[in-house]
Design brief:
Jelly Rolls, Arc Repressor Mutant, subunit A, 10 strands, 44% helix, globular
């Protein structure tokens, strides 16, 4: 268990010890395995997850089955925390994209601690601010920027959640995140490889040259990263 001030979840790390102690007895450490669905649209929220590492994409699925990612949550946020607003079904599906670990607590226990602690409420407000930044910039990016630039933005955003320059993602996963067809991703990957921005192998590992990919991506990644850091300053 990571104690406040440690290197784990940033929301938990900002809590005073007394407030963290409202949560700690109820936490269990869990593995976040790639492609695991933590929360499914239409289902009630049973648990709240505080990632210490890894990355989870928030997905929306349309009536025709097409999907698109709207935000990414890592150690700076939480999954399922909006259950404190009331017992309504989840509007999104949360899928692990980068393997990691998390502290998990039941939604009912988190709600009880939330009601007792102003510090926990402030932490949740910061999480909501960070999520809204992603949603707002993501909406503008999807409307104004070509898919190649958007793919670069998502790849850099995912890369921010790991310790090296290798993304363990398949082209199929990127297609789901971007809301495009797999052949579109294949063509974009060829273009990025030709520019030297990425390399990939047959095991679904994408080796990235951050500097070159940053040139190919839109400005939204840098803007989003800067604004998210301001939230947790």
């Amino acid at each position: 268990m990571t104690y406040p001030g440690g290197s784990g979840n940033r929301l938990l790390a900002r809590l005073p010890a007394a407030d963290f102690d409202l949560l700690m007895p109820e936490f269990e450490n869990v593995a976040l395995n790639q492609d695991t669905v933590l929360l499914r649209a239409g289902d009630p929220t049973e648990h709240v997850f505080f990632p210490h590492s890894g990355a989870i994409s928030l997905m929306v699925e349309m009536a025709n089955g097409q999907t698109v990612a709207t935000a990414l949550v890592g150690r700076e946020g939480a999954i399922g925390s909006l259950s404190v607003l009331g017992p309504s079904p989840s509007a999104i599906t949360a899928v692990v994209r980068i393997t990691g670990t998390a502290s998990r607590i039941s939604a009912s226990r988190f709600y009880a601690a939330f009601n007792k602690s102003s510090a926990i409420r402030v932490a949740l407000q910061n999480h909501i601010r960070a999520t809204l930044i992603q949603l707002q910039l993501g909406t503008a990016c999807n409307a104004l920027h070509p898919v190649k630039a958007r793919m670069g933005r998502w790849m850099l955003h995912l890369l921010d959640h790991i310790d090296d320059d290798v993304l363990p993602l398949t082209q199929e996963t990127l297609a789901h995140i971007l809301g495009v067809r797999r052949p579109t991703v294949t063509l974009l990957m060829r273009s990025l490889r030709a520019s030297g921005a990425i390399k990939s192998d047959k095991r679904g590992q994408i080796v990235i040259d951050r500097a070159r990919l940053s040139i190919m991506a839109c400005e939204c990644h840098a803007t989003m990263r800067r604004q998210l850091e301001e939230v947790f300053r």
